[in-house]
TrEMBL record:
HAMAP family per record: DNA_primase_lrg_arc
Cofactor note: Binds 1 [4Fe-4S] cluster.
Annotated Gene Ontology cellular component terms: primosome complex
Keyword vocabulary terms for this entry: 4Fe-4S, DNA replication, Iron, Iron-sulfur, Metal-binding, Nucleotidyltransferase, Primosome, Transferase
Function: Regulatory subunit of DNA primase, an RNA polymerase that catalyzes the synthesis of short RNA molecules used as primers for DNA polymerase during DNA replication. Stabilizes and modulates the activity of the small subunit, increasing the rate of DNA synthesis, and conferring RNA synthesis capability. The DNA polymerase activity may enable DNA primase to also catalyze primer extension after primer synthesis. May also play a role in DNA repair.
Subunit structure: Heterodimer of a small subunit (PriS) and a large subunit (PriL).
Positions that bind [4Fe-4S] cluster: C243, C352, C363, C369
Protein name: DNA primase large subunit PriL
Cofactor dependence: [4Fe-4S] cluster
Gene giving rise to this polypeptide: priL
UniProt keyword Transferase, yes or no: yes
Family named by the database record: Belongs to the eukaryotic-type primase large subunit family.
Domain DNA primase large subunit C-terminal: 235-373
Length: 398
């Protein structure tokens, strides 16, 4: 198997109907230790031969088992571990392959007479007699991809690419680089889909996730020591999704209760105190030891956003504060204790589809909304990207 998101993989997966059905049966076929084998080797640096030789079915289910586990924390060290290990596994196979038609890339084979001879001679270095034939093969423009598809995957400069008639022509290494990007995107997309159904996944995936976490902590130990834990941390407003920024600025009367009480309250509370709930039906008291963080960091932001509404929400409806506590899981109250958490459900942020259905005016997607399906994952993704940026800055400064 060259690509778990490619055409061949999709045909195999089709037999299972939905992804939920596939994830239901995986635990009957593969143990947790076996699934973890796919990532455990990363520290040693070399992909073990027996993993490269997995049969298609084993390869596919061990990969999708890991994706199922990532549904419990779509952006974090676990994601990085799974991405890096699997990228290396598939890359090792792709580099040995001569047929890329199986990859999840909308590419076409280039015909022999398709390009001007002069261009080919220069780009494919055909006059360079000193180059061995295997070296020359690297320069052959064998595949093309429509420019619009290319730009979806490669947002960097087009420098170094040969473009003609609305297509980008690719040599082998350019194609592989593009595949790496598509693999990362496809993984993100898949994990975001699974994030929505994580409540329905068998316990197996939560256990697998714990195993992944342990390996990831060991693998990225130095980074963790430098940056601290990627779990609960002060809110970073600049990384919030557009819908939350709109609510923070205050919304008109028809949107106030949904925007402030349902969306903002759930978003801020999970983002601040429990970005990756470790279990289903999590309660606030599972994540914090006293209510200080809610009273001093979350509630003031909610009240200020309510005051910016027109008319101001809490002046108009003073009891709405009780409803805020209700949505945080403390029941309908003004004076909660930590022990009260669990008296009502701690509402999870609604997904984007629900937001669009309930309050379409709040959804003004930006580029980063493309791969997520919930405002919380938007924020987690941005935190993850920031921490990667900080990592590379840190490394450059060393
Ligand atoms: S796509 Fe989702 S995260 Fe983005 S603005 Fe719309 S609701 Fe918010």
């Amino acid at each position: 198997m060259l690509d778990p998101f490619g055409k061949h993989a999709q045909e195999i997966l089709k037999e299972f109907g939905s992804i939920n059905d596939l994830l239901e049966v995986i635990p009957n076929h593969i143990g947790i230790d076996m699934a973890l084998e796919r990532v455990k080797w990363l520290k040693s640096g070399e992909v073990p031969q027996h993993i490269l030789r997995f049969d298609e079915w084993k390869d596919l289910i061990s990969f999708y088992a890991l994706l199922g586990a990532l549904a419990f924390s779509p952006y974090g060290l676990e994601m990085e571990l799974v991405k890096e290990a699997n990228l290396r596994i598939y890359l090792a196979r792709i580099e040995k392959s001569r047929n890329f038609s199986e990859l999840a890339l909308p590419i076409e084979k280039v015909q022999a007479d398709e390009l001007p001879r002069k261009d080919r001679t220069i780009l494919e270095k055909s006059l360079h007699k000193e180059l061995p034939s295997e070296e020359k093969e690297k320069y052959l423009l064998q595949y093309k991809i429509a420019l619009k598809d290319f730009l979806m995957l490669n947002e960097d400069s087009l420098k170094g690419f040969y473009i003609k008639g609305g297509y980008v022509y690719l040599n082998r290494s350019q194609l592989i680089e593009l595949w790496k990007r598509s693999f990362g995107r496809n993984m993100e997309r898949a994990v975001n889909i699974l994030y929505e159904i994580r409540e329905e996944l068998p316990q197996y995936y939560m256990e697998l996730y714990s195993g992944l976490s342990e390996i990831a902590r060991e693998q990225f130990k130095e980074r963790l020591e430098r940056l601290g834990s990627a779990t609960a941390q002060p809110l970073r407003f600049e990384l919030f999704p557009p819908c939350i920024k709109i609510v923070l600025n205050g919304v008109p009367s028809g949107l106030r209760n949904y925007g402030i009480t349902v969306l903002l309250t759930s978003f801020l509370s999970y983002a601040r105190i429990c970005p990756n709930p470790s279990k289903r039906d999590v309660k606030v008291k599972d994540c914090i030891k006293d209510l200080k963080v809610i009273k001093e960091e979350i509630l003031p932001v909610i009240v200020q956003a309510g005051n910016r509404c027109s008319p101001p929400l809490f002046q108009d409806q003073p009891n709405e504060i009780k409803n805020i506590w209700y949505h945080l899981g403390f029941g309908y109250t003004l004076e909660p204790n930590l022990e009260d958490s669990g008296s009502s459900t701690w509402y999870f942020p609604p997904n984007c589809e629900k937001i669009r259905a309930s309050a379409p005016q709040l959804c003004k997607p930006d580029r980063d909304c493309r791969y997520i399906r919930n405002p919380l994952t938007y924020y987690l993704r941005k935190l993850y990207l920031e921490s990667k940026k900080e990592k590379s800055t840190g490394e450059n400064n060393e």
